[in-house]
Design a protein that fits this description.
With 91 residues, the chain is of the alpha+beta class. The chain has a single domain (2-88), classed as 2-Layer Sandwich (Alpha-Beta Plaits). It is 36% helix and 23% strand. A 3-stranded antiparallel sheet has the order 1-3-2. β2 (36-42) and β3 (51-57) form a beta hairpin. The longest helix is centred in the first third of the chain and has 18 residues, at 12-29. The mean pLDDT is 95.
Length: 91
């Protein structure tokens, strides 16, 4: 199963920082929790320049919410997001 995740950030500079500095770490650690990262992009037109878009996949019968929760409570997630204000993700 695949899932498109869209993260809308406060502005395009914050999106660029999140994409470059933090998604590079997510790409390494998400597979440890059962996710496969198919691709990650940053919006490239004015209406979506503040968005980071990720396509992830996981096993068909997976508990995606449980997988996500385990990752978000892990030391890896803490390390992946160190120095980033998650309040800057507005949607």
């Amino acid at each position: 199963m695949e899932q498109l995740r869209i993260y809308t950030l406060v502005d395009k500079e914050t999106a660029a920082h999140y994409f470059k500095d933090h998604w590079s770490k997510h790409r390494i650690n998400l597979p440890k929790f059962g996710f496969e990262v198919k691709g990650v992009w940053i919006g490239n037109t004015p209406g979506v320049a503040n968005q980071v878009i990720a396509l992830v996949s996981f096993p068909d019968n997976a508990d995606v919410d449980g997988m996500t929760e385990r990752y978000m409570k892990s030391p890896q997630f803490t390390d992946d997001t160190a120095g980033f204000d998650r309040n800057k993700i507005i949607k």
